[in-house]
Here is the input.
Amino acid sequence: MINVAVCGANGKMGQEVVRAVNSANDMTLVAQIDILNGQFATIKDAKNSVAIDVLIDFTQPASIYENALYCLNNNIKMVIGTTGLSDEQIEELRKLSCEKSVACLIAPNFSTGAVLLMKFAQMASKYFDNAEIIELHHNQKKDAPSGTAIKTAQLMASANSDFTTGNCPEKETIEGARGGVSYNNIHIHSVRMPGYIASQEVLFGANGQIMTLRHDSMNRECYMAGVLLATRYVNENDEFVYGLDNIMN
Here is the structure.
């Protein structure tokens, strides 16, 4: 059995993860960690009381980096679903994970459909020189753009050096109207509105044609198969992984 701790257990995603772990026949939930009425208030409190094989973190952008440093320095394998880590922080966690030989899997999105959208976007980027990303989330999401949009842009940029081919010189009359400019000039537009959970569109354009890739998450349960897959993977391995696509067969 895999001894699993959930950090951020009382949040909306955390509650769903708790249910998923409790339903898995090869996992035991040993700790629910949350600063608000959790079984344990901190990871350190949990570690001092129970044996943890894998910690799943769905907390906040402000706390995830310190949480990860603590776990990797204390031999606790991690699955990170919290977004908001910078490229520099991810690189530091990769180095620490490799140095300590403690597994860490960071996934901007655990939905298999969203991961496939990223792969399709990377494939299409070889054939389109113009593309933009629109990501839409509920209005309680604190970071923008989403980790999924960032990961998508990174994959697209690996296949094409410039996504504004042929664009005329632009002037924003309202700052930010064209979104944020990310890797290789991919514009990312973030929408925050009640009613959404998580959606993303990638728009590709060429003379005479537009292609749209879109994925919608209708509930948080859709992420759980990916979360459990990642938990099993890090339990059996000692490596650093960024993106669920790297462990999907």
